[in-house]
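Input for the complex:
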Amino acid sequence: MISTRFPIRSRLRAVADHAVTGLAVLATLLVVTPLLTIFGYLLYKGASSLNLAFFTKVPAPVGELGGGMANAIVGSAIMLGIASLMGVPIGIGAGVYLAEFGRGTKLAHAVRFTADVLNGVPSIVMGLAIYALIVVPQHHFSGFAGGVALGIMMIPTVCRTTEEMLLMVPHAVREAALGLGVPNWRSVLSITVRTASPGIITGCMLAFARVAGETAPLLFTALGNNYWSTSLNQPISALPLQIYVYALSPYDDWHRLAWAGALVLIVLIVLAVSLVRFVTSRGVLKGTS
Amino acid sequence: MPEIRIPEISAHRPKAATHDRGAAETSLQSDVRRFLLSRGNSAWTDRGFHGLMVLCALSIFGIVGLIVWQLIQRSQLSWHTFGFSFFFHSFMDPVTHTLSFWDPVNSQFSALPFLYGTLVSSFLALAIAVPLAVGVAIFLTEMCPRRLRAPLAFLTELLAAIPSVIYGLWAMFILVPLLRQYVNPRLVDWFGWTGLFNNDNPTGLGFLAAGIILAIMILPIISSLTREVMLAVPQSQREAVLALGATRWEMIRMGVLRNARIGIVGGIILGLGRALGETMAVTMVIGNSPEIHRSLLSNGASMSSVIANEFTEAVSDMHVSALIEIGLALFFVTIIVNAFAQLLVWAVTRGTPAQTR
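Predicted:
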């Protein structure tokens, strides 16, 4: 009836509706395109320059072709190891506190807020702080400082996911454990944390994937190194750091290596994220919610 | 629904339970005693465990406290020399007699060009990203065929997982040449009269490149948060508006966007917080020169890019101190922005259960 009395208005409304639908589709296409081009170009450039030498050789001196990023891969692994050793236990502990002991207390609110603050600290500022905290007193750049910087960045993510996952464990499970006379710490560790463990592992992997690609906090802590080094007291290289240095260099061969490094990095991260998605979508977690 | 789930979990050890009951009937006394004994023994372990967890939680305070304390302490020199005017003063270059802001050789430092660069690149990024992100969120929640929804959401999630340095790499080798060859000359031709686009920088680097790459990087966070608050709007709202004869767009506008607007603003501010602190990609494409230009195509520098670029090469104490003061300012700004955003998002999504993604 409206369409007969106000034909123009009604048509305008229909046109607006179609226009918005079109715009939304367009926006989605515009967002998906850069992603696809990034991946496409990464695959194209990276795969064409990836070879065995990339994984086995250290960087070649300026002017020589070839070389690889073996030292950067090992350096990344070492620093990520330190970061996980530091970030995962502290993060899980803080998450357990938030979910099991401090529920509803003022302290827990403060911890939660501080964790969010820590999560929002720009990574470059984290690098500055660790530089002032570890590198200055030690008088040299070191892989240890880089690992600590990454570890601190892992804490808030691990903490908040652990808390969220533990909150999903039904209360009756805890009561059942306590009712059987299990001491509280045992009930937390073997019952609650165990039940929520798929989710907690997911959180740890997400945090790991996030810091694996971080460059900014390593710029003035690990500094980078063109030679083979596994010492924690020496400047050490890392994959993202090496990509950054090579991308800014004027040599085509180094650009090629940067693309190869980027491909390796992105494959690792996408694997981690997809694994996480696979685990969460398989319903392992749903059993607890 | 916790009640339904209990059997699943306790069903792990039905055998043990029945076995225990049988044993308990024969030696009830000793079992109770053992139980009491074990409880008495575990009181200390319990307390210790509790203490350990509290310690982990408190260590987060410690870390944030240490960061702030160190940054404040190390920036004392610059703070005492320049005071608050560090953030807005400028001076005459003694040699060239032009206005200058950042001169490590003569130990003259002002954060003004970096504040400007950070603000311009971040707001440019928001201007590009917000309409796109809201569009994507609308498409994903209201229009998308069910089959496409999961892959598209996964793709935008992947966009968030790509490291900053890879965005920078892509921007340097794809985006910047593209801007240099095709986009920038046209912008100058068409919009040169506004003064915002000036043809004095042939490299393709600059604020526009930084803004575009930042937009791509903050898009996922804005769009996923927008999606979350839009999903939190009750279905009955949509049905009510549709029942009044509204078209789909009117339903989205009146029923969904209006209800979710505070949360969307929260998401946008969270994206802003991300953009302000973003370092690597910006450093690689912004051009890194401490100058203030009106043109979006000229080189500039942001707070994070100047730290990344100059910190390892800074030799004088004053230079280091000035860079750390910029870092401290960046820290406080991002914290305020993030806290504000969290507050807004929390105000909207509180009360609704967390949506599975």
